[in-house]
Write a structure and sequence with these properties.
By secondary structure, the protein is mostly helical. It has helices at residues 3-11, 23-29, 33-65, 81-107, 110-156, 161-174, 183-186, 217-275, 279-284, 286-296, 298-305, 314-330. Helix 3 runs antiparallel to helix 4 (81-107), helix 3 packs antiparallel against helix 8 (217-275) and helix 4 runs antiparallel to helix 5 (110-156). The protein is rod-shaped, with a radius of gyration of 43 Å.
Length: 331
């Protein structure tokens, strides 16, 4: 065979072996085993935060939104700015934050991962500010509860059917009477002691109570406010805020490491697309690629196709010349 045929045969490059289907495997490897650990962390954080947010929403709905006693406290309106922020924060923690974290983990996006961490930090900062605000406001509400209740009671009881129904329900369910006691009714000529203040229902033909509740309803409302504040503070700070603080520290390290690995894998994937092999095959076949590059060179092909030649011994050539010179002298 000639040198051209041999060179042509050697010029046919052998295709690089691909592991598991070439570039597609490299793309899937970007989100494969190397990222399962980090994704699991994000999914765990999302699940814990979602459970905490749902528990807080359930407790707040039961003790604040759907409890009629809240309507008797003038300072606890549902449309004040602090409550509006709480609605937005709970809606974010109850779905939007989890959606952002899952998308960031699935798509392996640096921007989404950083946005997820920053959103978690903003929510924690908002919890601290809101908690400090309500710590001061709650003390003020407790101090002003009795005078504001007395003013509202004197102005609206008997004239407002809504307030009258709620106050009678409070007196009946919480075993109290008036704002500070039955004296609220005895000192006024407008009202008689209502049946809701009676320890036992009055006789059929009488509207007067034989025995009334002695404690005032302001104490019951104050106890309700303190119990509600304790439940929400435990769920809001000891659960939600603590989880956010822990996850911020852990996820900051995990997300930083995850972003570094994403960059490394993307760099290898770009090399894969350029060379036509997956990153694992590039490392495993570097020696074979070097050998093939040598085989492709024309001078290497010529050397490989030429027959082997015997090496000459320089000492043997010198001895042959000396023998020839001596024979000429003898002649």
């Amino acid at each position: 065979m000639g040198v051209g045929a041999t060179e042509g045969g050697l010029r046919r490059r052998m295709p690089l072996r691909r592991v598991g289907g070439g570039v597609a495997t490299g793309a899937s490897g970007l989100g494969g085993r190397a990222m399962r650990y980090y994704r699991l962390w994000i999914y765990t954080c999302n699940t814990a935060l979602l459970a905490g947010a749902l528990a807080f929403c359930g407790a707040a709905a039961r003790t604040v939104l759907f409890d009629f006693r809240r309507s008797l406290v003038p300072s606890l309106t549902l449309y004040q700015p602090s409550f509006l922020y709480a609605y937005l924060a709970l809606a974010t923690q109850g779905g939007a934050l989890q959606l952002l974290g899952c998308l960031a983990a699935l798509r392996l996006s640096e921007k989404l991962l950083n946005a997820y961490w920053l959103l978690l930090l903003v929510l924690l900062f908002g919890d601290v500010v809101l908690g400090a605000f309500w710590a001061f406001k709650f003390e003020r509400i407790c101090q002003e509860l009795k005078p504001t209740l007395r003013i509202r009671f004197q102005q609206e009881y008997g004239s407002s059917s809504e307030l009258t129904a709620m106050w009678d329900r409070l007196q009946e369910e919480d075993s109290c009477c008036g704002v500070s006691g039955p004296s609220e009714f005895n000192s006024s000529l407008r009202w008689e002691i209502p049946p809701s203040c009676c320890v036992e229902p009055p006789p059929v033909n009488s509207t007067k109570c034989s025995k009334t509740h002695t404690s005032g309803c302001d104490e019951r409302l104050l106890a309700y406010l303190k119990a509600t504040a304790s439940i929400l503070a435990i769920l809001g700070y000891c659960v939600l805020a603590f989880l956010k603080l822990c996850f911020l520290g852990i996820l900051r390290y995990e997300i930083r490491e995850m972003i570094q690995k994403i960059r490394i894998l993307r760099t290898e994937l770009e090399l894969t697309n350029a060379n036509g092999a997956v990153p694992g095959a590039i490392r495993a076949e570097s020696a074979e690629s070097e050998r093939e590059s040598l085989l492709v060179r024309p001078e290497s092909a010529a050397l490989l196709s030429s027959p082997p030649t015997q090496t000459k011994n320089p000492n043997g050539n010198n001895n042959y010349e000396m023998r020839e010179y001596r024979s000429h002298e003898n002649i």
